[in-house]
Amino acid sequence: MQTKNPLELFRTLPPKQCPECGDQITEQAESYLMECDHCLSKREDY
Fold it and tell me: One Pfam family, short name please (predicted)?
């Protein structure tokens, strides 16, 4: 069994998509948000 380079795994992952609207999310380092900025701005926090 051949072990793949870990960096190659991350290069081949599909872009993250917002589950609310389906738009592609531009990921930032150490960001664990699942929704895009547009959908997050529409959300009301209680």
Answer: YhfH
- Tokens 């190659």 label which residue? 8
**At 3, which amino acid appears?**
T
User: Which of 36, 39, 19, 20 has its CA nearest to residue 28?
Assistant: 36
Helix (H, G, I), strand (E, B) or coil at 17: strand
How high does pLDDT run on average in the chain?
82
Q: Answer yes or no: pTM beyond 0.70.
A: no
Angle at 9 (CA atoms; ends 30, 4), nearest 5 degrees: 135
Cα–Cα distance, 41 to 36 (Å, whole number): 9
Residue 41's Cα: distance from chain center in Å? 17
